[in-house]
Amino acid sequence: MSRQNIKTFVKAGAVGASNIATELDRAFAAAKGNTLKGVGDMIAPLCAIHKALTATHASGELTDEQFTEKGRELLEMLGNAVVSLFIQQTMSKRIH
Fold it and tell me: What is the pTM of this model?
């Protein structure tokens, strides 16, 4: 699923708490498996947020609605981070 499709899908409200958890897991796995140099370092803070968010939801401190909202924000941040890194590396290759 492309970044644009994820944004459209999420904004349409089609993602519930269990689905957002699945999408987050998939997005982080895809980002970690990406061949972009430095992606692991760039997304490490977002991975920590993902783990904390999941644990907070599992403990009942966040409602499904709150978790879904925060999960949507995290998906968007992850997408932006990967796109930003891709642009930086592409521009760097063109300069050198």
Answer: 0.74
